[in-house]
Amino acid sequence: MAEHGVPTDTFDVTKHDVTGLAVDSYQAVVFGSSLHFAEHDSRIAWCIRNYRSWLRDAPSAFFSVSLGIISKNHKDRREAAWLADEFLRQEDFTPSRKACFAGALRYSQYGSVTKHLMHWIAKKSGSDTDTDRDYDYTDWPAIEAFASDFASLIHSCRQPDPSGPRFNPVDKPHRQYSARLRQSVGELLD
């Protein structure tokens, strides 16, 4: 995103308490969640629920990470995409952009039970099963295209900077971007 002129922060919900994250202090947001045992991370769901009204006006994106998306079994690929869509439906969240990506299979970082389970899943889906090494299935060009597309959306929603001070000590920061504003302007121009 930074390569496209969009400054970013990264917040890892697995390492920090999400209740301290002020999603609405940002101008746009991208949520990403891995899919484990047919479930997306509940901490991402919490963020979406707690900032739902703000998310309706802001440029937003969601991506799901799952090895199922590259399975040789068409049913597994379809299910991985469906689970991402179902997660968004359950959270009543329609992001401006969404995608599903494969990630890495890091056998070296798994305990014995997880390693055995991931081996079984990999074998079932036609992925690599040698547990003595790690595998990276990340489609970096697809991720770059997703980021570029989202950055373009953010730029298209950009509003001119207000004259005068940008922050009022009492109010929240003013967002420079609004997906709803961009849509309204587009409708007026049509």
TrEMBL record:
<feature type="domain" description="Flavodoxin">
    <location>
        <begin position="9"/>
        <end position="132"/>
    </location>
</feature>
<dbReference type="InterPro" id="IPR029039">
    <property type="entry name" value="Flavoprotein-like_sf"/>
</dbReference>
<dbReference type="GO" id="GO:0070819">
    <property type="term" value="F:menaquinone-dependent protoporphyrinogen oxidase activity"/>
</dbReference>
<dbReference type="GO" id="GO:0010181">
    <property type="term" value="F:FMN binding"/>
</dbReference>
<dbReference type="Pfam" id="PF12724">
    <property type="entry name" value="Flavodoxin_5"/>
</dbReference>
<keyword id="KW-0560">Oxidoreductase</keyword>
<dbReference type="GO" id="GO:0006783">
    <property type="term" value="P:heme biosynthetic process"/>
</dbReference>
<dbReference type="InterPro" id="IPR026816">
    <property type="entry name" value="Flavodoxin_dom"/>
</dbReference>
<dbReference type="InterPro" id="IPR052200">
    <property type="entry name" value="Protoporphyrinogen_IX_DH"/>
</dbReference>
<protein>
    <submittedName>
        <fullName>Protoporphyrinogen IX dehydrogenase [menaquinone]</fullName>
        <ecNumber>1.3.5.3</ecNumber>
    </submittedName>
</protein>
